Automatic annotation (TrEMBL):
The keyword Protein biosynthesis applies. Signal peptide: none annotated. Keywords: Elongation factor, Protein biosynthesis, Transcription, Transcription regulation. Residues 81-150 form the Transcription elongation factor GreA/GreB C-terminal domain. Residues 8-75 form the Transcription elongation factor GreA/GreB N-terminal domain. It holds the Pfam family GreA_GreB. It comes from Streptomyces sp. 900116325. It comes from the Bacteria. This is GreA/GreB family elongation factor. GO terms for molecular function: translation elongation factor activity.
Length: 158
């Protein structure tokens, strides 16, 4: 990560916007169950009320995080196409001649095997590279290499 505003792909932006909508809906539901200063019944009721308050705090924190990330991405603009950065789509060829198109993301999606986080060994090695560069990175199986074939619009999935 560069320390400045980081761009995100259209796919990642849409996922964050969906998450934000879901969080807001969940927050409304939880907030509607709070009694707002009324005297609570027994200790079990107080514990439930406290738990809902804690959940509301968690939701508020995540909403603030997602809103901040979306604002940051809006300031950063579109991902670069001259060098690999967060949000870039990169096509690489590995030493065994297999090729893969991956997206450098902030968070790995469990169901999306094409997202490589910027702090993963491959993602970190790719940051700042251009088409034609060769990168080396450590894995549990040992040191691997890959060649950056293209980045940006050439292989963009978004």
């Amino acid at each position: 990560m560069t320390g400045g505003p980081e761009p995100i792909s259209d796919v990642a932006r849409e996922a964050l916007e969906r998450e934000l909508a879901d969080l807001r809906t969940e927050r409304e539901t939880v907030a509607a169950t709070l009694r707002g200063g009324e005297r609570v019944g027994d200790m079990a009721d107080e514990a439930d009320e406290l738990q809902r308050g804690t959940e509301l705090d968690r939701l508020d924190t995540r909403i603030t995080e997602v809103e901040g990330r979306l604002r940051e991405a809006a300031v950063a603009g579109h991902p670069r196409t001259d060098r690999v950065g967060v949000g870039s789509t990169v096509t690489v060829r590995f030493a065994d001649s297999t090729e893969a198109t991956v997206q450098i993301g902030e968070v790995a999606e469990v169901l999306d095997r094409t997202v490589v986080t910027a702090d993963s060994p491959l993602g970190h090695a790719l940051l700042g590279c251009r088409a034609g560069d060769t990168v080396s990175y450590e894995t549990p199986e040992g040191r691997l290499t890959a060649v950056v074939l293209s980045l940006g619009d050439e292989g963009d999935r978004s």
